[in-house]
Amino acid sequence: MSTAPRQMHLAAHFPGVNNTTVWADPRSRSQIDFSSFEHLARAAERGTFDFFFLAEGLRLREHNGRIHDLDVVGRPESLTVLAALAAVTDRLGLAATVNTTFNEPYELARRLATLDHLSEGRAAWNVVTSSDAFTGENFRRGGYLDRADRYTRAAEFVATARELWDAWTPDGTPRPFRHQGQHFAIEGEFTVPRSPQGHPVVIQAGDSPEGREFAASTADVVFTRHGTLEEGRAFYADVKARLARYGREPDELKIMPGVTFVLGDSDADAQERAAGIRLQQVSPQNALLALEQVWGRDLSSYDPDGPLPEIDPDPESSLVQGRVRHGDPFAVAARWRALSEEKGLSIRQTVIETTGRQSFIGSPRTVAERLTEFVAAGAADGFILVPHLTPGGLDDFVDLVVPLLRERGVFRSAYTGPTLRSHLGLAEPVWKG
Amino acid sequence: MSATAPLHLAAEIGGPPRYDPGHYTGLARLAEHGALDFVTLGDSFARPGPDALAVLSRVAPATGRIGLVPTVTTTHTEPFHVSSAVATLDWVSRGRAGWYVDVSTTGAEARLFGRRPAATADELWREAGESADVGARLWDSWEDDAEIRDVATGRFIDRDKLHYVDFEGAAFSVRGPAIVPRPPQGHPVTVVDGTSGPARETAARHADVVLVRATAPEQAAAARTDLRRRAAAYGRDPDTLRVLVALTVDLGDAETAPEPGLESGPPLAADGSYYRGGPVDLAELITRWHRGGAADGFHLTPITPGRDLERIVNGTVALLQHRSLFRTFYPGGTLREHLGLARPANRYAPEGGRA
Ligand SMILES: Cc1cc2nc3c(=O)[nH]c(=O)nc-3n(C[C@H](O)[C@H](O)[C@H](O)COP(=O)(O)O)c2cc1C
Question: How many helices and strands, by DSSP H and E, does chain B display?
Fold first, then answer.
């Protein structure tokens, strides 16, 4: 007896404002022109992807008190771009990252419901909660939210949005709403009827225990950074185990790590290309920057091709702004030093070795195999692919890997339904009158 | 104003609420077929309807030349978000965006947000002015040539060409710079209805296009003169202002109905001018007012968009084109070009940057 293999979900992440995105390559095009968004979205739709994904940052990153200038900077506002993409795609889901700290439920719920109508059921919202005072300087209310409150506000925000999306009856009669809570006390009438998906798909990205709990309670998809098999399985098991508490089935929440990939004619060719891309991603200047991000100190006088600094990191540093600092800096520094000494690596080589190695490297066949394995092994329900080139970085994957996934019977050959919920196999939320 | 000054025409495509994109795309294409300068799409938190900026973004790839001007209210929306969204509309439409500034005056709207009580129109229009001000500063916060992609130094941007705006208003402050690079038009076009007192000051100071409701050409001319004088007092060149007469039009069932309600009957809309008649008479009226120097053009709000817009384009506009009073094609690509407005210099660039 054979059972059908587990189906995988795929999404396309527009290249971001960090050094994963290689801008110095001659094939790299504008990160802001609509044509770039259209190119990547059309490629994703050609590959029958579940959705297209846009990240968000509400303040430009800074380093040492100055605007960070080494990576791609500047991007358009997500929901507006997605509304335009709805005109040039038919089935592809359209996901926008939008912060809950610097928005209000009424307005955002309305914008999301509008996108769901304009795309005929393809809208998704990636709920993020960054609440730092640095970003807050661009907003009326400033950085007023305590870090501890970021998820209580986010949870109430999403709950309120769902009340608004249910404000009209399924047969199109508007009814007044009223919400009284810790963060929001609002009432009135919603201006948009219940949208084609009932509620737009809700995605969560954020890794703390509070973030995972929030995802388990209300999200449809989790966007995670856990892209290795072991980490992925642990994360997957942890988050899925939280669902029962909310009366939810494991299949009601899809776990999709953000992953990078490099294809080649052979595995060896792909490895060679991957090394070349890492060199592009970690320019000498970017190597020093990565070092400063760990050390929290100005290290501009160091030679990127020389040895690591002997001084220790500054744990209290505010050198880096607009970006989350990962892990204990002393532990990271110790690890980097050990590696550098063992292999005789320079600063740049150490950074290349320790950061951002591509998740999937190989021939199309190898990559298709490994992706399938991940899903079969319970490390993911699918992947959010992050290409390193704008806008053509997904083309080879769609042309070379997707057909192999289809051949293996792990990925759709055609869209079977019109909405993003139908691609993800998610039921329409029950209307709560 | 010389009698040969170009005529500008715009139309509202909103009406009873619709949520299907095809409806709006059809109307915008119809207006584009008539080579109109721009379409507006009204929006308010106080009545049913979709988010107008999103709708016109959805319309952008389905059109090629026509300007797209959604209503955006400033009372409850973060100025930073307003600026980013309008700049993005300009990017996706390749330089065809504007925004029609409005405020939310009611307590019912305030309770949708629960952040502040309703305020007076005076206060809200001052705040709208600050929103427009900080929005334009944010658009300028990137110089046009800030993106350098300099492989030798590893720098994507020249950060000396990005600027903090450090705006301190009465109601909010914004640090900047924008997260969106300077839009194609430099500044998307700012439209304000300057008919009433508190809005007129904001219009004179910040608008590129001012709409005025008037029931007679003299009244429109007086408003235009007043706006130009006030704009000059703010240090602006009055010729960078386009004053359009806002008319609500009902082209009824007849080809040429003999009821030009505008000059004879009482206005139907309490705050505005209302035209009822045929498309040919409307063309006559537009010609007469424009020749007399009362306005730079007209913004027409059809009472029944589907029916009336078709009559405006195929009747009124066709006649104006036949008489060589209105363009038959778009010589330019951006909304500013349609309006004859220069791309603004950048206040932060040493010599204003690329104009
Ligand atoms: C994979 C991933 C992607 C994220 N993308 C964004 C983003 O685009 N914009 C943003 O403001 N925050 C983003 N975040 C930050 C988180 O949403 C979250 O707000 C932050 O990490 C704090 O929550 P936490 O403590 O649970 O991680 C991302 C986080 C993860 C894990």
Answer: 11, 13
Name the β-bridge partners of B39: B11, B68
Place of tokens 């005056």: B105
Q: Quick one: tokens of A96?
A: 């926008």
Omega before residue A391 within 30° of 0, cis:
yes
Nearest CA in chain B to A84: B58
Q: Mean per-residue pLDDT for B220-226?
A: 96
Q: How far is CA B197 from CA A362, A373, B75, B102, B227, in A?
A: 68, 68, 18, 14, 11
C-alpha of residue A241 to centroid of ligand 1, in Å? 21
* Spatial separation of the C-alpha atoms in residues B234 and A166, rounded to whole Å: 48
Question: Quick one: tokens of B100?
Answer: 């029609």
Cα A128 to ligand 1 centroid, rounded to whole Å: 5
Q: Do B162 and A60 touch (CB under 8 A)?
A: yes
Place of tokens 């405020």: B103
Structure tokens at A11: 């999404």
Contacts of B174 in chain A (CB under 8 A): 137-139
Per the CB < 8 A criterion, the answer to whether A262 and A360 are in contact is: yes
Q: A336 Cβ partners below 8 Å, 6+ apart?
A: A294, A308, A350, A354
What integer is the mean pLDDT of B141-148? 98
Tokens of residue B281, six digits: 């008479």
| Token duo for residue B36 | 């109109």
Model confidence over A371-420: pLDDT tens digits? 999 999 999 999 999 999 999 999 999 999 999 999 999 999 999 999 99
> Does B262 have pLDDT greater than 50?
no
- Quote the distance between the C-alpha of residue B290 and its chain's center: 19
How does strand A66-67 pair with strand A62-63?
antiparallel
ipTM over 0.90? The verdict is yes
Contact B338, B330 (CB under 8 A): yes
A357-369 per-residue burial string, b: 16 or more CB within 10 A, e: under 16: bbbbbbbbebbbb
**pLDDT band of A131, cuts 50, 70, 90:** confident
Cβ pair B127, B117 in contact under 8 A: no
Comparing CB atoms, the residue among B49, B58, B78 nearest residue A139 is B78
| Greatest extent of chain B over all pairs of C-alpha atoms, in Å | 73
Identify all chain B residues contacting A99, using CB atoms and an 8 Å cutoff.
Answer: none
| B174 inside 8 A of chain A by CB | yes
Q: Is the pLDDT of residue A1 over 80?
A: no
